[in-house]
Amino acid sequence: MKKFLLLAPVLLMTGCASQLTRLSPLEQPRNASGQYPVEVQFNSNQESLLWDTIKPYVQVDGQSYPLRPEPMLKNRWEGYVPVPPDANETAFRFKFDYLYNAFGSQPQPGSAWSPKYILKIIGP
Question: Could you tell me the pTM of the whole model?
Answer without folding.
Answer: 0.83
